[in-house]
Design brief:
Elements lengths: L2 H8 L12 E5 L2 E4 L4 E4 L2 H4 L8 H11 L14 H12 L7 E5 L2 H16 L3 E5 L8 H6 L3 H5 L8 E4 L14 E7 L12 H14 L2 E5 L23 E4 L10 E5 L1 H4 L18 H16 L6 H11 L7 E4 L4 E4 L3 H13 L2 E2 L2 E2 L2 E7 L7 H16 L5
Parallel strand pairs: 3-13, 5-6, 5-7, 7-8, 8-9
Antiparallel strand pairs: 1-2, 2-3, 4-10, 9-10, 11-12, 12-15, 14-15
Helix pairs in contact: 3-10, 4-10, 11-13, 12-13
The structure holds pyridoxal-5'-phosphate.
GO molecular function, one term: pyridoxal phosphate binding
InterPro entries: Aminotrans_3, Aminotrans_3_PPA_site, Class-III_PLP-dep_AT, PyrdxlP-dep_Trfase, PyrdxlP-dep_Trfase_major, PyrdxlP-dep_Trfase_small
Organism: Chitinophaga lutea
């Protein structure tokens, strides 16, 4: 059996139609398959490879740390310099109140940790989340995602969770002194790039402050430069009580984090002690890689060019089959009529050397979340292929 057949036989499958491309190498903006075919990457492993595949500084940091030490002890006991250096670097680039970092293995686990922290810190149980939000696939984070189709098969889930209409001013009064935390993606990604208004975000912040509720912003997908500023919340003039990070945080290695003030985070130290435990969270190799990746993002000033890149995508993506393009920096959704049309364009793109896909809660939208290093020439090439794919849909 070849590798593809073995993959289908022995690797657990999550759909009956996986892409099943066999990629043998990735570098910068590109991937190569087993036949030597080259692909331009327009999705960065779903918002992960912000500084490109195998950035030399990230590879070097991994090699150096792997040769120094790997796993030593469960999270939180030993002083491990890659964790310390990364936590300090993150705190230096965040508002002063976000100064305590709990490293996890994934975004879902960061969501889980934040929910536990909010319950423990406030002594309350209610969690408020929003329709069409995505926060992960573990049972706790699944309980708060905002789509009944994805949740329903796994009931019973966490009790005392409310889902409110995202962006609705009328709903804000539903946050009360019973509410432990409100969890929102700063910009909803899997909904097909939905950015709430400044007015709504500020009202959410005010209401959480009034009721003593923790405001948790999930920037697992939209953070770390993706939306054109280092943090997406900067564009709303607010600061969350807890920030969730993941995906690009590890520079391509598995790493997540929930970040709060030292005071709030202290709740995890007592009654019970060890309030959140992980063996591998904040793995030294992942932290070394993540720190090198975030330093590259900042030192190469990758966010500075994002507005011009976003504008170029918007200029080029003109076609009668496009119903709308929603963009927030280098996170764009091209809305088409329906999933079958979108799938046809996606298949055309992949066949023509461009990797893209659809969004979980917006299957009619084509995803554009490339590494932030994408050049003007590569944007033109990507749009040329997408437009040719749209031509195959024919006249309406
Ligand atoms: C906004 C958001 N939150 C949480 C998660 C969950 O992260 P992970 O898949 O690393 O568990 C994701 C993953 O797609 C995400 O996009």
């Amino acid at each position: 059996m070849n590798n593809r057949q073995l993959f289908l036989q022995h690797n657990a499958q999550t759909s009956d139609a996986p892409l099943a491309l066999e990629i043998v190498k990735a570098q910068g903006m590109y991937m190569w398959d087993a036949d030597g075919k080259k692909y331009l990457d327009l999705i960065a492993g779903i918002s992960v490879c912000n500084v490109g595949h195998c950035h030399p500084a990230v590879v070097k940091a991994i090699q150096k740390q792997a040769a120094t030490y790997m796993h030593l002890l469960v999270y939180g006991e030993f002083v491990q310099s890659p964790q310390v250096a990364y936590a300090k670097y993150l705190a230096d680039h965040l508002p002063a109140s976000l100064n305590s970092v709990y490293f996890t293995n994934s975004g879902s686990e960061a969501t889980e940790g934040a929910m536990k922290l909010a319950k423990r810190h406030t002594g309350r149980t209610e969690i408020i989340a929003f329709k069409n939000s995505y926060h992960g696939s573990t049972q706790g984070s699944l309980s708060i995602i905002g789509d009944e189709y994805w949740r329903n098969a796994y009931r019973p889930l966490l009790p005392d969770v409310q889902h409110l209409q995202h962006g609705s001013m009328d709903m804000i009064g539903r946050i009360t002194e019973r509410t432990a935390c409100v969890i929102a993606e700063t910009v909803q990604a899997e909904a097909g790039v939905i950015a709430p208004s400044q007015e709504w975000m500020q009202a959410l912040r005010r209401r959480c402050t009034e009721t003593g509720t923790l405001l948790v912003l999930d920037e697992i997908q939209c953070g770390l430069g993706r939306n054109g500023t280092l943090w997406a919340f900067e564009q709303y003039g607010i600061v969350p009580d807890v920030l969730l990070l993941g995906k690009a945080l590890g520079g391509g290695m598995p790493l997540g984090a929930f970040i709060a003030s030292r005071d709030v985070m202290w709740s995890l130290t007592n009654q019970p002690v060890l309030g959140h435990i992980t063996t591998f969270g904040g793995h030294p190799v992942a932290c070394a890689a993540g720190l090198a990746g975030m330093k590259a993002l900042i030192e190469e000033d990758l966010t500075a060019a994002i507005p011009a890149k976003e504008k170029l995508f918007l200029q080029l993506l003109q076609h009668p089959r496009i119903k709308a393009v929603r963009a927030r920096g280098l996170m764009l959704a091209i809305e088409l009529d329906d999933f079958p049309s979108n799938k046809k364009v996606i298949d055309y793109c992949i066949a023509n050397g461009l990797i893209t896909d659809w969004f979980l809660f917006a299957p009619q939208c084509l995803r554009i979340v490339p590494p932030l290093i994408i050049s003007e020439e590569e944007i033109r090439e990507a749009c040329r292929i997408i437009l040719a794919g749209l031509d195959t849909l024919g006249e309406q």
